[in-house]
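ok so for the tutorial part 2 we go from a plain amino acid sequence to predicted C-alpha cells. step 1 is just haveing the sequence, like this:
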Amino acid sequence: MAVKVLGLGNALVDALIQIDNDEVLDAHNLPKGSMQLVDWETSEKIINDTKHFEKSQASGGSAANTIHGLAKLGVTTGFIGKIGNDEIGDFFKADLLDARVEPLLKYSDNKSGIAVALVSPDSERTFATYLGAAVEISSSDLKLEDFMGYNYFHIEGYLVQNYDLIETAVQLAKNAGCKVSIDMASFNVVEDNLEFLTRIVKDYVDIVFANEEEAKAFTGKEPRESLDIIAEMCEIAVVKIGKKGSLIKSEGEVYSVGVIEANSIDTTGAGDLYAAGFIYGLIRGFGLERCAEIGSITAGNIIEVIGAKMDSDRWDGIYKSIGL
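step 2 — the prediction. this is what the C-alpha cells look like for a chain of 324 residues:
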C-alpha cells in the first residue's frame, strides 16, 4: 500500500514581485526583511503600485510547500486549508491539482489569503501578508474521514495560535493512525505559545523540525542541548543549523549532516523543502542520516531559485542526486 502524507496549513498564494529599489517598501511602511500582516486594501494597493515590476505567482504556506515537495518526489499527498471563492483561491487549488495533491479545501465567504513578497535587488524579501480565509480554518472544518488512509500528518507552526484547531487535528490524525510531524516555523510563534506547544509535542507529535532560533525559543538552549531536550519529547528530533547542516536525534543516537554546496539567492521554503526530503526518506525506509542528506539536497536546491517552487529541470537534477 502506498504511504500517504496529509498536510494542514495556511492556504496562501505567494505573489513574488522583484522591485528595483526599496522606495516601495518605504512608501508602504514595510521594514525591509520583515513579515507584516496587512488588510486587503493595503495588499491591493501594494500590488497595484508594483504592477510594472516582474511578478510571478505560486501557491504557498509552509505546510503546503512541504506537501508540494513530497508530491514532486512521487509521494501520494493531500492538503487541508481554507480559501475564498475567488481567483486567488482558484489558483491555489489549481496549483495543488497540477502537483497531484488531493485538495481537501474548505471555503470561506472572505477573500483568499495572499502573501505579497517584495524581493529587493540584494535578494532580501519583505512580506506584506493578507491572511484572509486562510486563518479562518477551525476545528469544526475537520472531519475524521479527511485523515483516513493517510500515514503521516504534517502541520506548520504558524497555526499553533489556534489551540482548538491544532488539538483537534492531532487527535483526529492519531485516531486515523497517522504519525504526526510539526515544523515549528517561527521563533516568535514558539515563544508566544510555549506551554501549549510543549504539551502538544509531548502528547501527540512524533517528528519535530526546528531551526536553531525556534529550538532556542522552545528549550532556551543552544542547538546541541536543544536537540537532547526535544528528543526526550518525541520519536525524531531535527534541529537545522543553517550552513552547518542539521542535527538529528532518535532513540539516543545523534547524527550530524552537512549541507550541499549551493548559491543562495532566496532562502524562502528551505525549511519546508528540507522537511519534504526528510519525510520522503522516512517513507522509503532510509536511515536518519540518509533522510537528512535528502533534506539537504531539496533545501539546497530551493535556495538557488526565487520563491518556494522549482521547475522540472531542477527537479530532474534532484531525482538524479537522490537516485530516483
